[in-house]
Structures are given as C-alpha cells and as structure tokens.
Write the structure tokens for this entry.
Amino acid sequence: MNMVDIGKYLSELRKFYKITQDELATRLGVTRQAVSKWETGTTIPDIEILMQLSEIYGISINDILKADLTKIKFQKEIVFPEEEKNTKNIFVIGCGRWGSFVAWYLDKIGHKVLLYGRKQSPNMLELVKKRKNQYLSVPESIQLTTTYEDIHTADYIIIAVGAQRLREVVLDIAERKIREKTIVLCMKGIEIETGRRLSQVASDMLEQSNHIAVWLGPGHVQEFYRGVPNCMVIDSNEELVKDELIRGFSSELIRFYYGTDMIGNEIGAAAKNVIGIAAGMLEGLDISSLKGALMARGTSEIARLIVIIFLMGRVLFKVKHIISLQKVMILSRRFIN
C-alpha cells in the first residue's frame, strides 16, 4: 500500500466528480487541511473516513487502497446538496458608518437584522427618512428601531459605536437583564479612563451567562458595498462561540479568520491606526520610501506594547486595582525604548 499513490487516487477521484476540497471536508466533517494531507500522501484516512469515501464514491475500500484509477470512469455523477443557511436574529446597535455596514452585510448574507439608533441621532434620522446614508442604501428587509424593545429576541447583539461610548451602551443592555446572548464588539480602541480592553468592559458589566466576541480587521465600507472582498478576524475566549460566528458570518465578500489571541487582536487593532497615521505623514512629506522601515519597527513596537499590557493586566488583576491607560503608557515607555 503506497500512501502517495492512494493520495493521487483520492485527488483524481475528487476532481473527476468536480468536488472541491472544502465541499469534501464539510461532507466528511474534517478540515480542508486534512483532505489536502491525504491527497499529498502525507497521511492516510482512517477506516471511518475510508468507509465514508466508499459510500460517497460508490466504490469499495479495497478499490481505494489499490488506487485503481480505471474504476473512476464507471461511476455516476455526484452532487452535494447545498448546506442550509442557519439564519439568526441579529440586533445591531449603532447606525453610523460601520454599524449601518454591518447591518447591510448581515442582511445581505441572509440573516434577519434589526438596526438600532438613538431617536435624536442624525444618522438614524437620515436612515429613517431616506433609508440610505453617504455610504450605502439600507434595504427594506432591515428593520429600523429606536428602542431596545426587541433585543431579547436576538440571537446575536452586535455593538458598533465609538469605543468611549461602549460602557454607556453596555449599561443600557445590562439594565435589561440580557442573558445567554452572544455579544459581538465591532469597534477598535481602549477605554481611556480605565485602560481596559473593550471585551473586558463588556465582560465586567454584563451577566456572566453572556458570550463576548470581537469582530476586527481592515476594510472600507465603500469598497465592501461595491463588492471588493477582504479578510477580517473574529476572536473570543470561547472556541464554540468563535466557530459559530465564523461559520455564520463568512461569505465571498468577507473571509473571516479564527483569532487565537484576544489581547493581541484588541491591542493590535487599537494601535495599528497610529502606524496608519504615520504612513500618511510619510506620504505627505514625500518620503514614502520609509514606509518599509515604519512597518517593520511599528509592528515590533506594537508587539512589545501587547506583551507589556498583558503583563500589566496580570499584575493589576492580582492587586485588584485598575490604572488609566496613560499610566500604562508611561510605565511601558521604558520597555519599548
């Protein structure tokens, strides 16, 4: 039994039926990387997987192990049924640039979306009157609201407001005794008064049965709206929550990656805009050749900042004391330099 020959056979078999690695992986309940390893001969499927492949392709396990390519041409066409979309009720808080985009995007990929904005908000008044803003048009399928009345029916609550307004919004949610909801924070920043990461602010104030996640990454609303794809990250301290969100939110427009470092992602997202501003300054000064050095040094300094804030957080947790972000920066400066 030659693993490389079996791998080539499995690869040709899959291609013959015009099945992608992702489709086969989904059908078998494994990762795409596992399928790739079989097809390159790095590993061989276990007996349970071989039985499933035998059933899918209508050939015996013995034929697979013999890697007999002559058997392929006699098989019937295989069509995998499309995976049903698991539609969720989503309550989006924040009707500005990013909040309206998040609502538009989630509606576009098949979820039921309710978009909240304050009654006096100019952004909400514009959406109610015109059902559009300077970035996009809001379809009729998105319900607009100025109350939290229906928040209890939501599967996911997504918050897309300015970072310094998060505590106010979370307090409003907490007063409604929200329980067992998934809260997704679509914003970047650090709470200035406390130096707390935004996920910490939400966790501190909400009932502990709720699940906290962050949605971070690059992208401009205008580009997304005209169909330009990009990659983003979803992270959470709970693996099942992260997995559910990525499966439910991914599409051809946005490819979500699994975050593995909440502290790094949140601090990195907050700090990277400083590097962006510096890059703009280099452009304005007509010395853009320094961008390479800026990116290299900027990445290094952000990494150091993440480590320091992590260490500071552990110390503060032990002494049950919170200091301001400004003090953290002063203390960390000596380590960065």
About this structure: The radius of gyration is 25 Å. DSSP finds 14 helices and eight strands in the chain. Confidence is low (pLDDT under 50) at residues 73-84.
